[in-house]
Automatic annotation (TrEMBL), chain A:
Gene source species: Nonomuraea antimicrobica
Protein's UniProt keywords contain Hydrolase: yes
The entry's keywords: GTP-binding, Hydrolase, Nucleotide-binding
CDD domains listed in its UniProt record: Ras_like_GTPase (cd00882)
Keyword Metal-binding in record: no
Pfam family, one: ATP_bind_1
Family of the protein in this entry: Belongs to the GPN-loop GTPase family.
Protein name per its UniProtKB record: ATP/GTP-binding protein
């Protein structure tokens, strides 16, 4: 059972803190959770309701009224706190699950891909309707076009105060820098 | 360790929580930290509960991690944990649920991330 605990031991004094990483399909949520997590990323089943059945192909299983999805989940133990990272699916059909995931979360890191910027709108809508603090991290792929930050900001219709960072989701240091930008932003909001 | 999907189950997942009585005031969520109560009686538990306790032998884990390691859906493990908390076997540390995050927690997260 040693695999469940890794080298970083959590004690009952650690405060559990939840951070959500959201983004469209294929944007690198699994990759960034993997880069940040001290444990091998885990996933478990989440039950979805009928809403998903129109989209998820359930041909041949007519009686089925629920479907399941897996959520990426990672952990990072820091002095005094243990960060739990959830890679959340960004489609609106996951609304109920999404609401549950962001409840009590410190904030959301929205991952975007400049090759498919339109795909991020649904996620940003979810984040904004939940009223949760967030930052946007553009995951830079080798063939991503380079846009200046103000162009990206305009394309995503971001508030000037919302942090926009470029990161490489595969690189732990770069992924951490994106998280730091998010937490600094939250701190500013709390202090203001 | 095999996950639930790799192993063919003879007993349906929901049976893991079938005998559990969950007190209404106990609320367990994904990131609730769970650990074994120091004076807990750990014998005489049914198999899902003993697997959970074996997992927690080395220290606290979140409910979500327990679900992943047990290969059971989160909704089932949540009930299992709540039942064991109600029976005094497990203790929990709840994540803070407030509209505005605590500044001390934010500073801990920031300094921790920067020190990595």
């Amino acid at each position: 059972m040693a695999s469940a605990h890794s080298d970083s031991r959590i004690s009952a004094d650690h405060i559990p803190v939840k951070l959500v990483i959201a983004g469209p399909f294929g944007v690198g949520k699994t990759t960034i959770v993997d880069a940040l997590s001290e444990i091998r990323p885990l996933n478990t089943e989440e039950v979805l309701t009928q809403a998903g059945t129109l989209v998820d192909d359930l041909t041949g299983v007519n009686e089925k009224t629920t479907t399941t999805t897996a959520i990426d989940f990672g952990r990072l133990t820091l002095p005094g706190v243990v960060l739990y990272l959830f890679g959340a699916p960004g489609q609106t059909r996951f609304q109920v699950l999404w609401n549950e995931l962001v409840r009590g979360a410190l904030g959301v890191l929205v991952l975007a891909d400049t090759r498919r910027i339109d795909d991020s709108f649904a996620v940003l809508d979810l984040v904004e309707s939940a009223g949760i603090r967030y930052a946007v991290a553009v995951n830079h792929f080798p063939d991503s076009p380079d846009y200046p930050p103000d162009v990206l900001r305009k394309a995503l219709d971001l508030d000037l105060r919302t942090p926009l960072v470029v990161c490489d989701a595969r690189d732990p240091a770069s992924a951490r820098a994106a998280l730091i930008a998010l937490v600094e932003h939250i701190r500013e909001l709390v202090l203001s | 360790m095999m996950s639930g999907r790799e192993r063919r189950r003879v007993v349906p997942d929901y049976m893991a929580a079938a005998r559990v009585t969950v007190p209404e005031h106990i609320n367990v969520e994904r990131t609730t930290l769970v650990y074994i109560a120091p004076d807990a009686a750990t014998n005489g538990l049914d198999p899902p509960a003993s697997h959970l306790l074996a997992l927690l032998q080395d220290g606290p884990l979140s409910v979500y991690e327990c679900a992943a390691h047990l290969g059971l859906p989160y909704c089932v493990v949540r009930l299992l944990v709540a039942g064991l908390v109600g029976g005094g076997t497990l203790l929990t540390r709840d994540p803070p649920v407030v509209d505005m995050p605590d500044i001390e927690i934010l500073e801990l997260v920031l300094s921790g991330l920067r020190a990595l």
